[in-house]
Amino acid sequence: MKKRAAPTEIEPPAEVTERSTNKAAAAPASRMKRKVYEKHLRKLQVELCHLQDWVKRQRLRVIILFEGRDAAGKGGTIKAITERVSPRVFRIAALPAPSDREKTQMFVQRYVQHFPAGGEIVIFDRSWYNRAGVEYVMGFCTPSEHQRFLATCPLIEKQIADSGILLIKFWLEVGMKEQERRFKARIEDPLRQWKLSPMDIESYRRWYDYSKARDLMLHFTNTKDAPWYVVRSDDKRRARLNCISHILSAIPYEHMDEKNIHLPKRSTKDRYDDTASLRGFNFVAARY
Fold first, then answer.
1. In CATH, what number is assigned to the domain containing residue 157?
2. Is 203 inside any structural domain?
3. Helix (H, G, I), strand (E, B), or coil: what is residue 285?
4. Under a CB-based contact definition with an 8 Å cutoff, are residues 216 and 148 in contact?
5. Quick check: is 188 in a domain?
6. Cα separation of 126 and 137, whole Å?
7. Cβ atoms of residues 32 and 238 within 8 Å
8. Are the C-beta atoms of residues 119 and 59 closer than 8 Å to each other?
9. Distance CA 155, CA 153 (A)
10. Are strands 90-93 and 61-68 parallel, antiparallel or unpaired?
11. Cα dist from 105 to 31, 92, 98, 108, 122, whole Å
12. Residue 130: how many CB atoms within 10 A of its CB?
């Protein structure tokens, strides 16, 4: 694939790429039932455990990054991936807004320090692509900084790939009506109101500005070394399963030998009443 030069004027490309017309990306007719979802999820999570063992044994280095509109389901997908595996192997990097010091650094510098060592998979909940999305749309970076990012990002990601790190990039695409439904659900649910920030509300208003920014980002940073994979996420359950399935297919792995584990017999040497020794200490009230 030929490298694309940075745009001189920030306008979305007019052509429709082959990937965007992939019939396999068509939206499903109905939402997946919970029981069906949980059945498939368990099978995939077992495979993630096998993948984890392989990554540790082979000292592989993997980066998985999730981008997408607000309320696209990134957090839920990451939770489904990580809830049954070790946080020492599957690490999550969800960086806050840059500090004053970080704003003076090279743009990708604060992300590089979170890159994986041997035997690690790092999942970025948003990433250096903030520059192509929220920073560009909301005016937190200049047009020249945005153009420079689109030009240099493919080069940086080629260096990442050449260093032996496997880079998997997901864009979660949620529809306009579904995003509105999820935002309203968050407003009505006190357990989810924390997910709504003033920036989220503004992104809702500026839907098409974010669409144009997305189109530019995908156009200029979809390369052979680091291709984008778009995931339709109106049905969160299907999106989670599809992402996990893709990860398992993108990282070649083998099942390790089955572990033959037996509990040893407890030693009775120096036996004493270790329950009675706790008397007199403060216990949490048994309210439930």
1. 3.40.50.300
2. yes
3. coil
4. no
5. yes
6. 15
7. yes
8. yes
9. 5
10. unpaired
11. 44, 22, 10, 8, 22
12. 19
Alpha helices, DSSP H, located in the chain: 34-58, 74-82, 109-112, 134-137, 143-162, 176-188, 198-205, 207-221, 236-250
Q: What is the pTM of this model?
A: 0.86
CA angle 30, 31, 33 (to 5 degrees): 120
CA terminus-to-terminus distance, the chain:
61
Domain extent at residue 110: 31-254
- Domain assignment present for 150: yes
Give the tens place of pLDDT for each residue, 237-288: 999 999 999 999 999 999 988 778 899 999 999 999 999 999 999 999 999 9
Is 64 within the bounds of a domain?
yes
- Contact of 256 with 50, CB cutoff 8 Å: yes
DSSP helix/strand/coil, 66: strand
pLDDT in tens, 13-42: 443 334 444 545 555 668 999 999 999 999
Angle at 216 between CA 71 and CA 210, to 5 degrees: 30
Q: How many folded domains does the chain comprise?
A: 1
Res 27: pLDDT: 57
The 3-state DSSP class for residue 60 equals coil
- How is the beta sheet containing 61-68 ordered, strand by strand? 90-93, 120-125, 61-68, 166-173, 228-232
Residue count of the chain:
288
Lowest mean pLDDT segment, chosen from 44-58, 187-201, 227-241: 187-201
Q: What angle do CA 100, 101, 106 make, to 5 degrees?
A: 115
Average pLDDT, stretch 81-100? Answer: 96
Q: Which tops the pLDDT comparison, 7 or 56?
A: 56
Q: Which residue has the tokens 């992300």?
A: 111
Nearest to residue 74, comparing CAs of 222, 173, 199? Answer: 173
Asked whether 131 and 213 are in contact (CB, 8 A), the reply is: no
